Amino acid sequence: MSVPESSYVFANSQHLRELERLQTIEKVFDPASRRRILATGLTAGWRCLEVGAGAGSVMRWMADIVGKSGSVVAVDVDTRFLTEPQPSNVEVLKEDIRHLVLENQSFDLIHARFVLIHIPDFRVALSQILSLLKPGGWIVLEEPDFAAARAIVGNSEALQSVNRVNQAILRMFANKGLDYALGVKLPAILQRLGLQNLSVENDTPLANGGFGIATVMKMSAIQLAENYIATGQATAHDIEQYCQFADDASTWAIYHATVGVVAQKEAIG
């Protein structure tokens, strides 16, 4: 993700465990991301920017669509999962998006997923993103709203533990100066910045355990257990209960919402 290590909660994660988490995120969230990106009209010849490339699935997919006449630039402060040879029309940059030096107004499409929520001064990053976008170009942003999280079906002890971990997640973000509900604020932010043709989706899946978003959040809880405990909102036992809950197909919860915004920069003339 294109954020400084001081604020990115997964900055010190173990390599293989983090790669597995990122690849699971890709499996769960790529279908919706691809659909939103395709809604912009993405086609051969476009120049695209992928902010926070992670393990690279969206980057490679866009590169295949834009073809040799197009290009994709992938930016991330952590490029450890992008070291393998990439398609010839892909350029990988180990950079912070807030300080990225590229030609202004040079991209037809810019996409970022679960990036801005990790940046305290996300408006600086957003301003930089918009400066790189061509007039008439498209931006696709996807950010979570963790305030939507709540346990719904499970035994009473597990429900209490899950909701305590949910509160720990909120406190962890807040303690870092991060907005845990950024997703729901994005449409209004982009509207005030003059973006046009806004299309907004708020995915708030009611999910049972054992797969999908439940598995992603379990993997995050394992990696961030110390961070959650440090907030004083949850114990090690709560986290153990949370992980068991997320593995149990008979449980149901909303783990977080994802707000997807597709918008167009005003064209000149």
Could you name the key traits of this structure?
single chain; 269 residues; alpha/beta; Rossmann fold; seven-stranded mixed sheet; three-stranded antiparallel sheet; 10 strands; disordered N terminus
Overview of the molecule:
With 269 residues, this protein is an alpha/beta fold. It has one domain: Vaccinia Virus protein VP39 (Rossmann fold). The chain contains eight helices and ten strands. The strands form two sheets. The protein has a seven-stranded mixed β-sheet with strand order 3-2-1-4-5-10-7, sandwiched between helices. Helix 3 links the parallel strand 4 (107-113) and strand 5 (133-145).
Secondary structure topology:
Layout: H1 15-38, E1 47-51, H2 57-66, E2 71-76, E3 90-94, E4 107-113, H3 122-132, E5 133-145, E6 150-153, H4 156-175, H5 182-192, E7 196-203, E8 207-208, H6 212-223, H7 225-230, H8 236-247, E9 252-254, E10 257-264
Parallel strand pairs: 1-2, 1-4, 2-3, 4-5
Antiparallel strand pairs: 5-10, 6-9, 7-10, 8-9
Helix pairs in contact: 1-6, 4-8, 6-8
Quick overview of this protein structure:
The chain is an alpha/beta fold and 269 residues long. 39% of the residues lie in helices and 23% in strands.
| Fold-level CATH name | Rossmann fold
**What is the terminal-to-terminal distance?**
35 Å
Main structural class: alpha/beta
CATH class: Alpha Beta
Order of helices and strands: HEHEEEHEEHHEEHHHEE
Low-confidence stretches: 1-5
Number of domains: 1
Oligomer: single chain
Largest sheet strand order: 3-2-1-4-5-10-7
Instruction: Determine the strand fraction and express it as a percent band.
Output: 15-25%
Q: On the 0-100 scale, what is the average pLDDT?
A: 94
The CATH superfamily turns out to be: Vaccinia Virus protein VP39
Radius of gyration: 19 Å
The CATH architecture name reads: 3-Layer(aba) Sandwich
Number of helices: 8
Shape: globular
Sheet bearing the most strands, described? 7 strands, mixed
**Fraction in helix:** 25-40%
Number of strands: 10
